[in-house]
Amino acid sequence: MTSNLKNTEIKELGDTLLHIGALLLSAGASTGRTRNTITRISDSFGYNTEFVISNRTLLLSLNDENDEYFFNSLKRSSPHGVNFTLLVGISHLSWQAVEDKLSVQEINERLSRLVALPHYTRWIVLTLVGLAGSSFCRVNGGEALDMLTVFVATVAGLFVRQEAVRLKFNSYMCVYFGALTASLIAGAAVKFGMGYTHLPAFATSVLFLIPGVPLINTFSDMIEGNLQNAIIRGMNGLIISFAIGLGLLTSTFIYQL
Q1: Rounded to an integer, what distance in angstroms lies between the CA atom of residue 225 and that of residue 203?
Q2: More exposed terminus of the chain, fewer Cβ within 10 Å: N or C?
Q3: Which of 241, 212, 216 is nearest to 230 (CA)?
Q4: Cα gap 87→241, rounded to integer Å
Q5: How far is residue 56's CA from residue 79's CA, in Å, rounded to a whole number?
Q6: Which residues contact 132 (CB under 8 A, 6 or more apart)?
Q7: Any idea what DSSP says for residue 192?
């Protein structure tokens, strides 16, 4: 392979790996998963990889065995969410790159198809999350009326949070607005329950906001020795939990429960 072709390949591969890493971080991957996926693909091309992964930034350095060709760059990821379809798809793609010896162009083509996959529609998400909230209420001893209350509260709370995100409010304020909306609806059932407490509905109305993925990634990073990212993700989960609690507290104060 000529020098120009080699330089072109390592640059294209580096850009692709940075893009993959940023997608993984924004989709909710742990630091270890991101590192393993990038290393797996780069190893299949015969390059050595060194990188630094922070909560929102990826710094990548590639070089060949003879240290003749280098790539060094960084990329910032978009705000984090959860996209299991993308996580699983990129994992499969990384193994295909190893087993089928995919070229950089083939990897980019398949990656583009993954990114372009349609998401569930908004109303499907709202309905299914509402049903999940109702199920949690039932598990915690709620009756049929409690489950209906939680369904309405969850759908309304998630809708308000989505709208707040669309309007570009601070992410923690979006959680607070969602928790406040859901707990106000469930709290009304407690306040005006006519002799029935409806406490299971109030307690489970905000469970859809619990930061499960950030907290799981916190322990995953901690176990793997990525303490800096573990602390950042743990603090993020703690602030989200505080915003949820503040929403509940506001509703409790309003209804004097």
Answers
A1: 35
A2: N
A3: 216
A4: 25
A5: 8
A6: 154, 208
A7: T
Locate the domains of the chain by residue range: 3-115, 122-255
DSSP bridge partners of 176: none
**Who's near 188: CB < 8 A, 6+ residues apart?**
255
Tokens of 78: 């978009």
Residues 6+ apart with CB under 8 A from 9: 1, 45, 104
Residues 6+ apart with CB under 8 A from 244: 175, 176, 179, 206, 209, 210
Both tokens of 45, joined, read: 């091309």
- Give me 148's structure tokens: 């209906």
Is the separation of the CB atoms in 247 and 178 below 8 Å? yes
Distance between CA atoms of residues 1 and 82, nearest Å: 40
Residue 62 CB-half CA count within 13 A: 28
Q: Where are the beta strands (DSSP E) in 4-69?
A: 48-53, 57-63
Region for residue 55 given its phi and psi (left: phi exceeds 0; alpha: psi -120 to 50; beta: otherwise): alpha
Which tens digits make up the pLDDT trace of 144-183?
888 999 999 999 999 999 999 999 899 999 999 999 999 9
Tens of pLDDT along 48-101? 888 888 878 888 888 877 766 677 888 888 777 788 888 999 999 999 988 988
CA distances to 56, 120, 243 from 80, in Å: 8, 18, 17
Count of CA atoms in the C-beta half-sphere (13 A) of 91: 12
Q: Radius of gyration (Cα) for the chain, nearest Å?
A: 23
In Å, the largest CA–CA distance within the chain is 82
Look up residue 100 and give its two tokens: 């089928």
